[in-house]
Amino acid sequence: MKRQHEDLAGRVPPHQNVVTGWPVLHYGEVPVYRDVRKEWNFRIFGLIEEGEKVLSYDEFMALPRVVRTNDIHCVTGWSKLDNTWEGVPVTEVVKLVTVKPEAKAVMIHAEHGWTTNLLLDDFLREDNLFAIKHNGQDLTPEHGWPVRLVVPHLYFWKSAKWVRGIEFLPEDKPGFWERNGYHMRGDPWREQRYAWD
Ligand SMILES: Nc1nc2c(c(=O)[nH]1)N[C@H]1C(S)=C(S)[C@@H](COP(=O)(O)O)O[C@H]1N2
Ligand SMILES: [Mo]
């Protein structure tokens, strides 16, 4: 029989502490929308054959959704287990465009110009979602409403809140925190916290 701390040892990356609440962490202000259906849209651009594709709020919300449960790990040291997300798989969104073969990375664009970068291999994973609900409820404004990215295999700063678009790039390039000392990739199992790790 396995003891609980042994189960957790396999699930919680090094130097992380499990929390039961859900801390709120971000740089800048929580966006306010007066009419989200008119003010929010989702832009796909960069190295795609179409040049640019823009989805309205209604179009985005009508995309096929899945429900997935996973753990999240913040670089500041907390992990939150068993989060159930409902959202649109990243692969469903990317299917809407033709990505040029020279694309190697993406920049995720969020409200107010906040960005984070991912290699294509990290971005196109089956587990990654554009999440709309957490544990059955719409995301709250401070956790990214109306849509946030969830990339569970990397530190949680890669999971952009208030996401507004994907830019396909020929090479990896640092986003907001990555320009400010965080690691380019951010694998919690290898403790890739800072640029020098
Ligand atoms: N748009 C945006 N997304 C963001 C951030 C941010 O500053 N702006 N911070 C990141 C960081 S550092 C973390 S740890 C998580 C925190 O998400 P939470 O507040 O829902 O816990 O959001 C990530 N996504
Ligand atoms: Mo973070």
Automatic annotation (TrEMBL):
InterPro entries assigned to the protein according to its UniProt record, in alphabetical order: OxRdtase_Mopterin-bd_dom, OxRdtase_Mopterin-bd_sf
Superkingdom of this protein's organism: Bacteria
Species of provenance: Calditerricola satsumensis
Segments passing through the bilayer: none
Entry protein name: Putative oxidoreductase YuiH
Gene coding for it: yuiH
Limits of the Oxidoreductase molybdopterin-binding domain: 29-177
Lineage: Bacteria, Bacillati, Bacillota, Bacilli, Bacillales
Pfam entry (one): Oxidored_molyb
